[in-house]
Amino acid sequence: MEISFHKDDYILLVSPTGRIDGYGAQELRRVILDATNDAIKVLILDLSLAPYMSSAGIRILLESKKFFEKRKGLLILSGVGPFPEEVLRMTGLFKVFIITPTLDEAYLKAREYSTTYNNTEKSEDGFSFTIHEGTNEPAELAVTGSLGNVLHASIKKDDVHAVRFRDCDYSLGLGALAENSENARTILGEMITLHGSMVYVPTDGHFIPDFFTPLDDTGSIKIYTGFNIALQGSYQKYISFISDNAEGVSLSRIYDTIFHQESLKENSKGIAALALIGITAGVRSSGIIQSPIPENNLPPGTTIMDPDNFSTWNALINDPLFSGNTLVSFGIGIDLTHDLSSFDESSLSSLYYIHPANRGVQTMYLHNHGVIFRGVPYNEQDTLNNNIKRVVKKGEFVDMRHLLDDTRFIRGICGIAYISGISNLAEQ
What we know:
Helices cover 22% and strands 37% of the residues. It has helices spanning 22-35, 55-70, 82-90, 103-113, 147-151, 181-185, 251-260, 262-265, 310-313, 345-349, 384-394; strands spanning 2-8, 11-17, 42-46, 74-78, 98-100, 121-122, 127-133, 139-145, 161-163, 170-176, 189-194, 197-200, 210-212, 223-233, 237-243, 249-250, 271-288, 314-321, 326-335, 364-374, 396-403, 408-424. The protein has a 17-stranded mixed beta sheet that branches. Strand 3 (42-46), helix 2 (55-70) and strand 4 (74-78) form a beta-alpha-beta unit. Helix 1 (22-35) packs parallel to helix 2.
């Protein structure tokens, strides 16, 4: 048996050639599972070159149908020949499956299936989105520690703060998990918290993320951080989005829409926090590889982001990775074209620096971290929080990254918190 497959956006076409008997059915199952990533919502099985099907083949069809229905997707059979059709009729399953005579009709039915983005606002670059209302409650950012200490690699023992998990539902920054603050200080790395889970990349030379999800936050284990930005409040707007382009839509394009789209910008004061779950079209990333502490000998008067120091302190990955996987992210954006006078200068400086790899974006400052999962695609009909909780709990953890602005998405859902204030989060 020969089996070919082709992916087109959220559609997987699998075309077996030969008998779908005991051996062929197992080969078909293997190809379907291997080719299905989190982006795939519809499987089209082209059976026009499969003249024979046994009960083993029927089992694979039923298994595939159940698999795609669990991910709120669809299985379509196309070009079913006389013998396989008779097998389906004799087993009473012919009406159980969606069957089309031709591939064109199968693709048409697959396209019709995706109704999530009806009544969307559409742009010329293929980015389409639908706005959903959230809460009217205000949102603030709580900052712990000093961004300046991070940039100048001057974090001392007293600059490491202990923060409770419950105070960091959504947050990002530089942190670690350890027995005490001094042990944490030497391995501080990029971190993110998502609904009670903390993920970080220890700067211990391995660049392998670690994570912890407490079932019950007793307060005895804390997050140690030299710098952390946590969301305090809720999301006033939600948007579900999709890109018609194979390259996807960039993170900077999403923020640009939030800040400048008429239907979204009315609540903005120039700063927004964003929680997002979506299917990636390529993650571009960086990460701190040395803890920014004096012992690591940054040249005086410079920062870890200066050109002469950058590669010593940071790993940069411009190649797009993890395409088709699920990414959960949290971050903030500052619209530099907006009147930011409602925020004092010291508050803004506690959030703001220019990442060298993002110098092309002159109108915004973005700071986003993300965790890559696979195996539990998000459900467009469910809420953002439920999706994130489910993926964090059940998904297969793959990696954690500081996201560059050109990280791209095929589709997703995000919550927008329009920030009205910036405060300090006292050590608990």
